[in-house]
Amino acid sequence: MRSRIVWIRMPSTELINQIHAGDCVAGMASIPAGTVDLVFADPPFNIGYQYDVYEDSLETDDYLRWSENWIRGVHRVLKDDGAFWLAIGDEYAAELKVLSQRIGFSCRSWVIWYYTFGVHCKYKFTRSHAHIFHFVKDPENFTFNADDPKLRVPSARQLVYNDKRANSKGRMPDDTWILRPQDLPSGFSADEDVWYFPRVAGTFKERAGFHGCQMPEQLLGRIIRSSSNDDEIVLDPFSGSGTTAAVAKKLGRQYITFDMSQEYVKLASERLQNIAVGDPLVGSADPLRSVPSTAAGKRKKKTPKQKVADQRKVARSVGLQMSLEFRTAGEAELESLVVDAFRDTHAGFSVDRVLLDPAMSERFVNECRTAGCEANEHELRRQLAQLRFVGTLTAEDLQPSEPTIVATETLQRYRYASEIAWRTIADRYPTWTLDDLLLDPEILCQFDTVARQVAPNCDTFTLRWGTLKLRQLAAAVLAQAEVHQGRTGQNGAKRGRAGQGGKKTKKAKSLLHGIDEVAADTIEWDDDQEHLAGIYTIESTDGAILYVGESLNLPVRMRDHFAANESIDFWTTLAGGTPRVRMHLDKTDASQSEQERLLPWHRELLMREDSACNLVNLWTPVDNA
Ligand SMILES: C[S@@+](CC[C@H](N)C(=O)[O-])C[C@H]1O[C@@H](n2cnc3c(N)ncnc32)[C@H](O)[C@@H]1O
Fold first, then answer.
1. Which residues are in the GIY-YIG domain (predicted)?
2. pLDDT tens by residue, 477-534
3. What SS3 string covers 376-433?
4. pLDDT at 215
5. Which of 211, 259, 263 to mutate to test the pocket of ligand 1 (most atoms within 8 A of CB)?
6. Ligand 1 centroid vs 315 CA: distance in angstroms?
7. Most distant CA pair in the chain: distance in Å?
8. What dotted CATH number matches 18-145+171-273?
9. What pLDDT score was predicted for residue 2?
10. What is the mean pLDDT of residues 444-472?
């Protein structure tokens, strides 16, 4: 009997299980027609997103023409029973749906993917969804693995009613996909016009990678499981960070993917190298049961082995591979714990807010502890600041989306206390920068004590926050001093060192009690008159006001300041000559309410065109930025 040979058309082996650099239209043209089982496409949405090489802002007609080209390519390579899943934003969802149907696809489901880490919008509702279309070539013949237990979710009968008649296998998910349903207060049903208010940062660790549009693995898992079988071929024309290939590989499928960016292809290929068939998908498979809500969330303490395994998993999926080689496993582990703790506790606020807000810092440190981290609080805070500094916290759910608002009036009212406390602590630790001081919890405690002594009515956070504002102002003053230098040239008066004697003089005495003006380099100070709260100006030699503000011991500080060579150099070469210090109001004994009444007067001075605000950086040479 003659045997019959059936030829199965397959893409060439060079194409399979690779992420290819290049244009997907050309790439798909090299795949034989009718050979792919499933296509997942997450194309650029034409919304001006910043990719490294692709320009995401085509004219509408050009975008639609280009979309038609690649969707035709998808249609050609798909098998007759194949499926095409398309993820797209609001802007072109309608157009691409119609286009795909015209090309020959039938729409099975219009899925809404609801997510909880949208980019915060000021003047419209923050977007929290994307559209995902499930198309098939033949509506009578397609793969849909409805019985796969990994696809099914617990039913209301199981969860809410504890009904014995419930199908123990659960049910298929709705077409609104919520990958963090545990963050919804009491479920989300199709017949409710419920708006969900609290915005919760997502827990998709894998989103912290090199590609801002990275899809969660669990989402791809659902698509690949439902529309393909073991060993079948999954194609993604727009690979990005390589999520489709990563999930296809984990689930034992073959894959072909393209991306026009060489860099993304390189990093995604590295991601793939660390993945093996059978590896679990990142993220919770059953978030309702296995992951607590963000509010209630507390991690189980992990064993060291689990922690290292997790750290590897995170490193693989967040694209930290390049820098990882230069760190020890312990450092990398600490880093990933700190990133996780920040993600879970920052509630959309900045790193500065978490570090300076006592309640938030406590939550952050507790979260690190719960995750099994043994580093001390100072180390944890330093690590967080360092991660921000080196640009590790760029993922969407780590970025600040909530502004920290402290009324300008409040900041102005208590700025003097922040300054006094900063100055006092800086004097104790003369070589430390402001960041060094704020990151050390013990020193921060000293700061709080001094600041609260001076401004007992003000809360700790505002007083701490005030130092950052002062630093900003100081930078502005420095910039102004540079402009000033342009105006006056560099011929400032040459001065000797001032005020080192501690001898009482008439001039010093009159300054201390509200005299009009004194050149700083002529002042000699009285050692027992150390605590001089008042409103001061510092003026340049041509009368421009460089600083105006409430301060303690400003004359004393100016004396110290002029004792340093750097200061002399600064004033004589950059700022156009040694300044004058004037005390406008002595308020050492003023009560809080009296100080508040001073404010309008203070503000008048501030409004003067030639006023800048604070020179604190100028007398703190180590923190001169
Ligand atoms: C929205 S992202 C895909 C993200 C991906 N789903 C993930 O999970 O990381 C779109 C990607 O398409 C790539 N791209 C744009 N035009 C392309 C083209 N003509 N051929 C191949 N890739 C292209 C971009 O470089 C970008 O990485």
1. 531-608
2. 444 444 434 433 332 222 222 222 222 222 222 222 222 333 333 334 444 444 556 6
3. CHHHHHHHHHHHHHCCCCCCHHHCCCCCCCCCHHHHHHHHHHHHHHHHHHHHHCCCCC
4. 84
5. 259
6. 22
7. 124
8. 3.40.50.150
9. 44
10. 86
**Which band of pLDDT confidence, cut at 50, 70 and 90, is reported for residue 93?**
very high
State pLDDT tens for residues 311-336.
Answer: 444 433 333 222 222 344 566 778 88
At 607 the pLDDT is 46
The segment(s) of the chain belonging to CATH 3.40.50.150 are 18-145+171-273
Structure tokens at 597: 């009444």
What percent of the chain stands above pLDDT 70?
A: 57
Quote the pLDDT of residue 618: 32
C-alpha 29/C-alpha 212 separation (Å) is: 28
Question: For residue 481, what pLDDT is reported?
Answer: 42
pLDDT tens column, 246-259? 999 999 999 999 99
d(CA 183, CA 200): 7
Token pair listed for 306? 């689990």
Q: Average the pLDDT over 301-311 and give the result.
A: 45
Which of 261-270, 387-396, 402-411, 465-474 reaches the highest mean pLDDT?
261-270
213 lines ligand 1 (CB under 6 A): yes
25, 54, 235: which to mutate for ligand 1, most atoms within 8 A of CB?
54
3-class SS letters over 308-359: HHHHHHHHHHHCCHHHHCCCCHHHHHHHHHHHHHHHHHCCCCCHHHHHHCHH
What 2-10 contacts at long range (C-beta under 8 Å, 24+ apart), as own/partner pairs, is 9/33, 9/34, 9/35, 10/35
Query: Pairing mode, if any, of strands 129-136 and 106-114?
Result: antiparallel
Residue nearest to atom 21 of ligand 1 (CA): 259
514 in the Ramachandran plot: left (φ > 0), alpha (ψ -120 to 50) or beta?
left
| CB of 24 closer than 6 angstroms to any ligand 1 atom | yes
**How many other C-beta atoms lie within 10 A of the C-beta of residue 424?**
18
**Measured in Å, how far apart are the chain's first and last C-alpha atoms?**
89
| CA–CA gap between residue 172 and residue 150 (Å, rounded) | 10
Angle at 294 between CA 288 and CA 297, to 5 degrees: 85
In this prediction, residue 7 carries a pLDDT of 56
Query: Would you state the structure tokens that stand for residue 540, as one six-digit string?
Result: 């340049």
- The residues, any chain, with a CB within 8 Å of residue 606's CB and separated by 6 or more, are 412, 548, 613
Q: Which residues of 206-228 are buried (b: 16+ CB within 10 A; e: fewer)?
A: bbbbbbebbbbbbbbbbbbbbbb
Instruction: Check pocket membership of 51 for ligand 1, CB cut-off 6 A.
Output: yes
Q: What is the pLDDT of residue 381?
A: 94
How far apart CA 616 and CA 55 sit, in angstroms, is 45
Encoded tokens for 100: 């795909």
Phi, psi angles (nearest 5°) of residue 254: -90, 160
Segment 436-446 shows an average pLDDT of 91
Identify which of 473, 497, 470, 478 has the alpha carbon closest to the alpha carbon of residue 574.
Answer: 478
243 Cβ closer than 6 Å to some ligand 1 atom: yes
For ligand 1, is residue 317 a contact (CB within 6 Å)? no
Mutate to test the pocket of ligand 1, among 53, 204, 238, 256 (most ligand atoms within 8 A of CB): 238
